[in-house]
Write a structure and sequence with these properties.
Largest sheet: 9 strands, mixed
Order of helices and strands: EEHEHEHEHEHEHEHEHHHHHHHHH
Distance between the termini: 34 Å
Shape: globular
Number of strands: 9
Number of helices: 16
Amino acid sequence: MATIYREGDLDLLSGKVAVIGYGSQGHAHALNLRDSGVDVQVGLREGSPSAEKAEEAGLEVRSIADAVRGAQVVALLCPDHVQKEVWDEHIAPNLEPGAAVLFAHGLNIHFERIAPPEGHDVIMVAPKAPGHRVRELYVSGAGTPGLVAVHRDASGNALALALAYGVGIGCARVGLLATTFAEETESDLFGEQAVLCGGVPALVQAGFDVLVEAGYQPEIAYYECLNELKLIVDLLYQGGYEYMRYSVSDVAEYGDLSRGPRVVDDAVKQRLRDILGEIQTGAFAEELFADDEAGRPKFAELRKAGEERAAEIERVGKELRALAGVEGLLGVR
C-alpha cells in the first residue's frame, strides 16, 4: 500500500525559499508559498520576460544568484532542459551551506546531470497537475495531489522539510504520495510518452484520419474522436472503468469490450515496453539532451511534422470550439 502524507509542519520553512523560474510550475509554487506565509523570492535571469508578471503579482524578483544567496530552500523550477546550465552558472556558486535543493521532477538528478554537493538535502515535491491548475485549486481552497521524494537526507530532516513545502503549495490538502526520484522520473516520462501526451493524441489523430479518409465529414470525425473524449475521461476520473461503462450505452460498452483489445493489442503493449526500456536505460534522456545541446534541430523537425499531421483536425477544432465558445487555457512555460 502506498504511503500518503496529508500533514506537515509549515513552520519548518522558517527561512527564504528561492523559486528559480516563473513558468508553469514556478509561478504556482511561488504564489502559493507566498499566500501560505512563506518568505519567497523569485530568481530569474536578467531580461526575463517573466519578471514583470511576477512583480505584478506582488512577488519579490531578484537575479538567480541573489535569490539563491541566503535561501533555506532553492526550488529549481525552470524547464528541465536548461536546469543544468542554470545550476552550473548561477546556483552552485551561490548555494548556502546546508541549503536544501528541491525539484518538481527528478530528471536531472536521476540521470546525474546535476549533482548537488554533499551536505545538502535533495528533495522533490511534484504536483500532479499543470501549474495553472495547482494555483487555481489552491485559491479555491482545494489542492492538487503530489509526489514527495528524498534523494539525499543530509540534515536528517529532509522528508519533513519536503512535506512542509507540500503544505505550502497546497498538495498536502489532498495528499503527497511517497516515491523515489527514479520512480517519479521513469513513470512520469512513460506516462507522458505512452499515454497522456503521446499515445492518446496519436490515437485521436489516427481515428480522425481514418474517418476523414473514408469520406466522413471532418466535423463529424472531430466530434466523435476528440470532442467526446473529455466526456469519457471525466467519467473515468469520477468513478473508474465500472462507472464509465455503467454510464455509456450498451452498444458503446459492447464495442469497448470487444474492439478495444484489438486496438491496443499485445503488439502495442510490446512497443510500450520498448519505450519504457528506453527511459529506464537513459537512452531517451541521452537523445533529448544531445538534441538540446545541438540547438534542438530534431525537436524543431518533430514539431513541424506534428503541426503538419494535425493541420486538418486543428482547423476543424478551432472552428467548432469557437462556435461553442470554448477558449483554450495555456499555462505559462
